[in-house]
Design brief:
The protein is an alpha+beta fold and 304 residues long. The chain has 3 domains: 22-123, Triger factor/SurA peptide-binding fold (Orthogonal Bundle); 126-142 and 244-271; 143-239, Roll (Chitinase A, domain 3). It is built from 9 helices and 6 strands. Strands 4-3-6-5 form a 4-stranded antiparallel beta sheet, with helices on both faces. Strands 1-2 form a two-stranded antiparallel sheet. A hairpin with a 2-residue loop joins strand 5 and strand 6. Helix 4 (128-141) crosses helix 9. The longest helix is centred in the last third of the chain and has 27 residues, at 245-271. The protein starts with 38 loop residues before the first strand and ends in a 33-residue tail after the last helix.
Length: 304
């Protein structure tokens, strides 16, 4: 099993960087005076500019569709049809309807927000130093050893003790007992084998027991957790070795970029005055007594 850095990424910060529908007038909006854009087609005298086609080609390329003359022809034909239909809609005054006006305003906000995100990314690049710091932080959390172990999980302590007594006489029967008695569906089919794992990702009681046990040992007493009673055998251990920085550099860059964006927008939101109609203002919490000790943190969700 290859060692790895666990990239803990929040899901996307915002849907701002996702592809958005383009304004129906985009293809016919004249480029800047110093632009090298050219007219690639006209629809009843209305031009379609190369810059819009290039933009849409880039979007398709990001989705895995290569640039080709056929793709460009299809895009131009679609833009021509869009321009023609949009022109007819304007003639009927549909561009003045409240619903369309509202949608156009939402689209404008979405495009502006996306442009802001792209501008932020451009002007706040993720440096190699930031990536290295994130790499070191993750490796520090993942430090120590990983273990290869087997277990049998049962509901009753007496049954767990009976299994331990039986295995002390014949360890070769571990796999068969696990398949017969274990309540852990993920490992019982493999004879109780959990493979290689970091004890920090396990039930706290289980992780602590594995760390304390010696290679080849069976637990002297059942290990109780919220899932039941575990009978554990530690087969091996080894230091956790992270992959080279270059191997995960791009993933780390994206993660740091997401975290920076999230912090920036959280700060922006904290300074904004957002009033939701009908929602009661949040009550101001009374300050804690100076001598009061902080409440203990709740136990983390357990993974098996």
């Amino acid at each position: 099993m290859k060692s790895r850095v666990l990239i803990i990424g929040a899901a996307s910060v915002l849907a701002l960087s996702a592809c958005t529908k383009k304004d129906s007038t985009a293809a016919t909006t004249p480029p800047a005076a110093d632009s090298k854009e050219t007219v690639v087609a006209t629809v009843n005298g209305t031009p379609i500019y190369s810059g819009v086609v290039d933009m849409m080609v880039k979007e398709r390329a990001a989705q895995g569709q290569p640039d080709s003359p056929e793709l460009r022809k299809m895009i131009i034909e679609n833009l021509a049809m869009q321009s023609m239909v949009a022109s007819e809609a304007s003639k009927k005054g549909l561009d003045k309807s409240p619903e369309v006006t509202r949608q156009l305003d939402m689209l404008r906000q979405s495009l502006l927000a996306n442009a802001f995100v792209q501008d932020y990314i451009k002007n706040n690049p993720v440096t190699d130093a930031m990536i290295k710091a994130e790499y070191d932080k993750i490796n520090a959390k993942a430090g120590g050893n990983e273990y290869k172990a087997r277990h049998i999980l049962v509901k009753d302590e007496a049954e767990a003790k009976a299994i331990i007594a039986k295995l002390k006489k014949d360890m070769k029967g571990f796999g068969a007992l696990a398949k017969e008695k274990s309540m852990d569906p993920g490992s019982k089919v493999n004879g109780g084998d959990l493979g290689w794992f970091n004890p920090a990702g396990m039930v706290p009681e289980f992780g602590a027991a594995v760390t304390a046990q010696k290679k080849g040992e069976i637990s002297e007493t059942p290990v109780k957790s919220q899932f039941g009673y575990h009978v554990i055998v530690v087969d091996d251990s080894r230091p956790i070795t992270p992959p080279p920085l270059e191997q995960v550099k791009e993933q780390l860059k994206q993660q740091v970029q997401r975290e920076n964006l999230k912090k920036f927008f959280d700060d922006m939101k904290a300074k904004a005055k957002i009033d939701i109609v009908g929602e009661k203002p949040a009550a101001v919490a009374a300050p804690a007594a100076p001598a009061a000790a902080p409440a203990p943190a709740p136990a983390p969700e357990v993974k098996k």
